[in-house]
Amino acid sequence: MNQETHIFAHDDNNAKLIRMAQEIADYFHAYPQEKAAESIASHINHFWTPKMREDFLAAAEAPGQSLTPLLQAARGGIRRKKIK
Amino acid sequence: MSLIQEIDFGTPIRVAEKTVTLIIDGEQISVPEGTSVMAAAMSRGVKIPKLCASDNLEPFGSCRLCLVEIEGRRGTPASCTTPAENGMVVHTQNERLAKLRRGVMELYISDHPLDCLTCSANGNCELQDAAGEVGLREVRYGYQGENHLQDVKDESNPYFSYDPSKCIVCNRCVRACEEVQGTFALTIEGRGFDSRVKPGPTNFIESECVSCGACVQACPTATLIEKSVIERGQPEHSLITTCAYCGVGCSFKAEMRGDELIRMVPYKAGKANEGHSCVKGRFAYGYATHKDRMLKPMIRARITDPWREVSWEEAISYTASELKRIQAQYGRESIGAITSSRCTNEEVFVLQKLVRAAFRNNNVDTCARVCHSPTGYGLKMTLGTSAGTQDFASVDDADVMLVIGANPTDGHPVFASRMKKRLRAGAKLIVADPRSIDLVRTPHVQANYHLQLKPGTNVALVNSLAHVIVTEGLVNEAFVRARCDLDEFESWARFIALAQNSPEEMEQYTGVPAKDVRAAARLYASVRNAAIYYGLGVTEHSQGSTTVMALANLAMATGNIGHVGAGVNPLRGQNNVQGSCDMGSFPHELPGYRHVSDDATRETFEALWGVEIDDEPGLRIPNMIDEAVAGNYRGLFVQGEDIAQSDPNTQHISSGLAAMDCVIVQDLFLNETAKYAHVFLPGCSFLEKDGTFTNAERRINRVRKVMAPLCGKDEWRVAIELAHAMGYEMNYGHPSEIMDEIAALTPTFAGVSYAKLDEMGSVQWPCDEAAPYGTPLMHVDRFVGGKGHFMLTEYVPTRERSGPRFPLILTTGRILSQYNVGAQTRRTENGFWHMEDVLEIHPFDAEQRGIVDGDLVSIVSRAGDTALRAKISERMQPGVVYTTFHHPGSGANVVTTDNSDWATNCPEYKVTAVEVRRVNALSSWQERNAQEDVSLRRVLEATPDAAE
Ligand code: SF4
Ligand code: SF4
Ligand code: SF4
Ligand code: FES
Fold it and tell me: How far is B265 from chain A (nearest CA, A)?
């Protein structure tokens, strides 16, 4: 696979991670805001690899990317990769 | 080893609190009330001659061979239809009875060919036995009179033949088809001498028969007999093992002659099936010795190279060096494995151990990802454990069944027979399914409500059922107060009572009339025992996990947890889905569903395994593929799975596979995934394995080796050798030792051992000190985690919408004769019933598009397109089309998208927006795939020094 397709796949993956996070947020949307934000972060910590979490956080910060307020609120609870 | 013979008591063994005591041939015998004299005698080993009776059928009393004398009663009553009573004095043998029985036998034999010596049932024929038992020595009526000896055989079924000349019209087959299977395919036509068994108007294959084999099993003569027995002779030894197809987990006697399998006979003592079977487990085992099986390890540097056969040593050391190279170059996380739900618990356990201890990461996932991962998540969040709540027998006490997103008669046939039996006895049925599945209307069964919802609206429907229960005061408050977290219940009740969840509001999404939803909810809540059964039609959605939780909420709100006849029951797809999940196949969980971040759990594993275990979750299958496409994930061990065919969005999967450096496939066949593999390791069929499978009721069943591995190596040894080659030691001499380690590390398996399984036959986990004989029923006095948890389940429509470009919704499923990707069943005579996948389309949609039955049509989605033959069908509503995914060339998954369940990423197979139109050529994917079937599957001619 050449470099270009890799970059393309990378963007694609980031978009997918944002979408996955958004779907998790859509589920917890029924809960009160604070509990929802906490549950979203905990779900992501529970099931996503550290790399997926880092990629997501980086993608969320990318210029032009806007998260829904609930996902935005959950962001702070997402565990960073441990430096081993 | 000898042939296992099960005792036939002649009539069903009754369960009753009261017993009765009688004297049979001078011996005092006590039996449960309702037991027949025949069964009572047999319980002491006194065998009364019989022909029309069998203990899996209700007594019929037609052959008059089982006559006995009862003191104080006139005549000679039939012992099969006479219930044992207190104080009875019964004589089973005397001159008068012997004479009567000989007379009966004589009549039978005078219309029966006397070719015993050359008959295929010779040595295993009840007529022959009975003639011996009654001491028949001569037949006074010759063949001069009218007889049936010239009747023509019906050979239309691929697996068994019907030779009416040998029929004694005992009616056992007819009753087996009715009582055991519930299909009612057979009748007795004609009267008296003219009466004959009749399968529909023509022959077996064109009748309603589903080839379950129950009639063959029931037939006391050679009239209905397996063709394999006719061709190869009677078996001479057998072992008990477990079917390797679906999650029912039927027990079979594998009957052998030398090292050849003659037939699979359902085992009466098997607790999942109690002697019943379906066409797959009973007959479709031919794949195990099919010529397509690959028996030699093979490697190749590039997928476009031809395969080269190598020795096991070379294959393992090549694999290890590749995996080590990849990790050195791309990091520890760059490789992983996928375990198989078709493999044994022991094989799965060692593979996940290979990943965690030798690969040193948690990149292990299982094919359950694509079927029941939402069950794992949803039931754990609500009930506290990732498993169904009941045993199968529980359905015998259900007053109402809610069957949602499952098609038991096709997917779980033996359990479906049990359901139908209960339904015929009067239980009520609610079916929630976009298709009119067979259960909706089958002989003597008619669903009370068929809630024909639009695909993708399960949550909307279940919420509206719950809404009715909460707002109409149908909640079982005592149960909720005693057993559930009250704060959570109250917030759930407030949520579900919102008008947005009412049947009237939800009707716009579900398409189900609100009045039917209300009536169904009232029915479900009106009885003491209401049971929920669900399948992949629940899980394989973007809200799969939400629906599972919504169903658990429904059961808890009505108190339908913790007692017989109720519960929430996932019908598992593959034979060992439950087991592969239990065995720690998920990247975030160690065996027994304990999160990798739990220090105490990790410590017990680390102490025994002598390595540090990563405390962070690994990649799930879809994430593996995404990372592979992105170039970060480079090596994958695929155990007995075919993700290139079974997983959604085929083109994405194949580009992920093609981007990897080393794909290792362990399988029976060069499957679709193997086209992208660099190492092929031959696997073993279930007949070549010792191990265990765990079925949908958490029942751990033994799988026993009846023949040596054809590829020369036990499958479980491969992971061990690979671990060794990568520098990590695992030492097991036999799968039982792997089970001992599972028991030592997994609290719910603490009491499980091969010794116990041999003694008990099977055991349902949790099996531990508190429940040494296992747990048929879960959550009886308290939930596993203490309280039951109500979860909020807001309906969020799937992103997959139909619109002007893709106006139809495609949903997928399976049929009885085929199994999943079809790798096994396609290599048996089952192809007879299902030559190709077709697209079922409603006449209205077909007409609008000018499509007629049999037309080749293209199915186009946002992900891709494929072409299939159209079949006009009214099983779905207009707007919904349906297909199966049993044949690789159909490319059903080229069309499915990578939308998935929000919680588990289980793919949304059940909802894809498509357009369908007539075409005259296959799709470009299909054409390319056909070429690659050849180009990526070439095997070099074996060189003399390779693969000894
Ligand atoms: S094989 Fe099964 S379905 Fe077919 S006739 Fe026999 S009992 Fe009935
Ligand atoms: S086919 Fe067999 S089981 Fe059926 S009536 Fe004839 S002898 Fe009895
Ligand atoms: S119901 Fe399932 S387990 Fe039983 S025989 Fe059929 S395929 Fe096998
Ligand atoms: S066995 Fe009793 S009448 Fe046939």
Answer: 43
